[in-house]
Amino acid sequence: MNVRRHHISGVALAAVTALGLGSLSACSSDSAAAGNTDKFDVVASFYPMAFLAEQIGGDHVKVTSLTKPGQEPHDLEVSAQQRAQIDDSDAALYLKSLQPAVDEAVEQSGVKTKIDAATLTTLEDHGAVEDSHGHEGEEAHSEEEEHARDPHIWLDPVKYAEVAKGVGAAFEKADPDHAADYKKNTAALVKKLDALNTQFTDGLKNTKSKVFFTNHAAFGYLAERYGLTQEAISGLDPESEPSPARIKELQQEAKADGVTTVFYETLVSDKTAKTLADDAGLKTDVLDPLEGITDKSKGDDYFAVMEANLKALQTALGAK
Questions:
Q1: Tens digit of pLDDT for each residue in 277-289?
Q2: DSSP string computed for the chain
Q3: Tens digits of residue pLDDT in 234-259
Q4: pTM as predicted
């Protein structure tokens, strides 16, 4: 389709911390397939963005993800072919600073509709909170890490719904011929996200413990939304290594707060989480940050994996 229209108003650039992107299986990862089709062509940076584009766009869009299934997010480099793909598309949907290479490629591209999801909701600082339990722990992370804004907005159904509304409005403006369908699809998606929010609210209302341990600080928005406390082994960067002082602190906290489980994720090594669990006599389980869908995911789309996450949290926290 390759519609060339004016830049979406109100979609400005916003800074968030560099963090891994996930993979995508539901959307095409064939870079040669994007652009110049008879549909509204959307290039998405990673799975949560691509899922929104598919749900809102329906039959009118062709969505291509820049991040392949199972790809280590931080390693993504945008190829010349992918840069051409962005140029040939009608819209680029991304979350600025998650992958600097993507940001640069989008900013330098000729694509008219650039949708930065970070501008469609409010980002908060969870990194410093997670790492502020002792000076030694803080020193293990860079100053940038400690003052970074948390980009994991899609793990809060309420914030994800806010982003969905903004994406829907952007699609309506960029492709007005199908605006009515985009509006209808956005409303349906928001309704499902509202229902998911209710599931989490009711499911986590009465639990024996409110504290859960994770491999990295991906669940700050989710914890804040549902009255829980996330304690991360690492910070916002899943590849950062915790200090010995941080590990010792978590072992002590596990006893004090009745923590039963250390959660790890599918796209990052579980070695540190399992070491902590073994040393502290805790169980391990998966809490998926949904940066990508792979064969290891407990579900084949956003909603299925989020429901699996809810069940895992209910078990670990002792839901009544």
A1: 888 889 999 999 9
A2: -----PPPTT--------------SSSB--GGGSSSSSSEEEEESSHHHHHHHHHHHGGGEEEEESS-TT--GGG----HHHHHHHHHSSEEEE-TTSSHHHHHHHHHS--SEEEEGGGSS--B--HHHHT-S-HHHHHTS-HHHHTPPB--GGGSHHHHHHHHHHHHHHHHHH-GGGHHHHHHHHHHHHHHHHHHHHHHHHHTSSBS--EEEESSS--HHHHHHTT-EEEESS-SSTTPPPPHHHHHHHHHHHHHHT--EEEE-SSS--HHHHHHHHHHT-EEEE----S---TTSSSSSHHHHHHHHHHHHHHHHTB-
A3: 766 666 677 788 888 888 989 898 99
A4: 0.82
